[in-house]
Design brief:
8 helices; DUF2267 domain-containing protein; Globin-like; mainly alpha; 127 residues
Length: 127
Amino acid sequence: MDELIARVTRVTGLEASTAQTAIGHILAFLQKEGPAAEVSQLLAAIPGAETAIAQSNDGEGGGLMGMLGGMMGGGVMALGQKLMSAGVPMGQMQPLGRELFAYGREKAGEDVMGPIIGSIPGLNQFV
């Protein structure tokens, strides 16, 4: 996870803690919305992925941001709201996604990443 966080911070300029939270949000989103077999392979290929997911979900679900996410109905738009709430500016979401998915391709391969990207509507604009 440290290698991925370092890459994301270098590309986006985000602080390491913000990058880790954002990565956790994205991985949690993939876990919820993506094809189970491929997402499991991706998470297994990224050391610390499960911990990042758990930490990103700490304290989530309530308050105004939880209500907004619920009203958006989920999907990529709700993920974008979570990322903004975590401190990721709109202009850094695409570079963040690109770096995370490039890392995923290196660690898990295109056979894993292709089906994940292809199965989630709207995700391809971030990779």
